[in-house]
Please model this.
Amino acid sequence: MKDYKIMGISLPVYFTMLIVLLIAIIFDVLPKGMIGAFAFMMIIGSLLDVIGNNTPIVKTFFGGGPIVIIFGSAALVYFNLIPASVSENVTTFMKGGGFLDFYIAALITGSILGMSKKLLVKAAVRYFPTIIGGVVVSLLFVALGGMLFGQSPGESIAYIGIPIMGGGMGAGAVPISEVFAKGLGVPSETILSKLVPAVALGNAMAIVFGGLLDRLGKKYPKLTGNGKLMDIGEDDLKEKEGTDPVTLSDYGIGIAIACSFFVFGQIVAYILATYVGLDIHPYAWMIISVGIAKAFNILPRKFEKACASWYQFVASNWTPALLMGIGIAYTDLGQVISAFSPVYLVLVFLVVFGAVVGTSIVGKMVGFYPIEAAITAGLCMANMGGTGDVAVLTAAHRMELMPFAQISSRLGGAFIILLATFIAPLVFG
Model:
C-alpha cells in the first residue's frame, strides 16, 4: 500500500488533504467559488473513482469509477450527507461558473483537431444514417413493449421513447414538452413532469450500458476499434505528431483556441436564432466550425497539437471532478428512484437497448465499428446531453469520441424535436 497513489499522490499526502477538506466542511469554512469547488470535487471524486474501480461487479460490468462517482455524489446530496453550502457552491461552479462548458470546449476542440482529417471526412457522411437507425429501432422496441404491457404504442413513444432520445433536459425534454402541450392543450409543466423521469432513468441506464459495451469490446475485440469509430487504414486516429515536445505555452494556446471556438459558436447561434429563427445549440456550431478548421487546414499544425495536448490534460486530470459535479448539480436521485417500477424500467431499457441495436447494425453497414457506433450514435442520443456524454464516454473509456457524442446530443437532439412535431398530431390529435 505504501506505493499506492490516488490522483498520482501518495496516500499520506492524499489523506492529509482529505482531512483538511473535511475539517473545512465541518466548520463550514470551505471557500466559495472555484477553489472550494475544485478542492471538494477533485479530492472526493478521486476517492470515489478508486472505490468504483476496485469494487467487484461494479468495476467489471458497470463501468467502475464513473458510475460510483456520479451516483455516489448524487446520493450525498439526496441523503443530506454534505452541507447545502457545499452542494450549492459546486452547482454554481458547474452551471453559473461554466466548468462543464469549459471542459467540453476543451474536449471538442482538442479531439477534432487531433483527429485524422481522413476520418473526419469519411465519418461525417455516415453518421446521421447511423443515428436514424438507432432512433427507429429504439422507438419500435418501446412501442412493442408498451403494447405487451397494455399501453398504447403512441403513448410509449411520446412519453418514454422521444424524451430519452431527445438530447437531455434543456435542449430536449423542455422543448418537447412545449410541442406536446400544444397538441394536448394542457400546460407544458404537466407534460414535463411525465418526461423528466424517463430522461433521468434513461441517462442512468445509458451510463451503465457504456460500461457494458466496454466490457463487450474486451471480450470480442473484432467488434471494437478501441476508441476509433472506423478503420481508415491507419493505426491511430491522430495525425503524426512529430518530435516536438509539449511545452507549458501549448496549454495556454489550447485554452485560448478552445474558448474562442466556444465563443464563436455562441455568436453564430445567437445570430441565426435572432435573425433567421434557427434555434440550434451553440455546441453544434462549435463542432461545425472546428470541423471546418480541421478539414481545410485553417490552423497551423502546431496549434492543432497544442489543442490536442490541452484536451489530454483536461481529460486526464479533471474527469473525476467533473463527474462529481455532474452527480451533484445535474443528477436528481429522487427522480431516478421515483421512476422505478418494473414496467417503466423495462420500457426505458427497451429504448436504450434499441438505440444500441439500431446504431450497431447500421453503423456496421456503413463501415463503423459496432461498439463505437452504439456508444456515440446510440447511447449519446439516449443520455442527458453534454453531462451524459461525459459520463457515458468515461464509463466506456472512450473520451476521444466526444465530437461524435456531441453531434448526437445537439444535432441529433434537434432531429428528435423535429420528429416530435410530426408525432404529436398522430398521438394527441
About this structure: The mean pLDDT is 86. The chain has two domains: 5-98, 100-315+334-428. DSSP finds 18 helices and two strands in the chain.
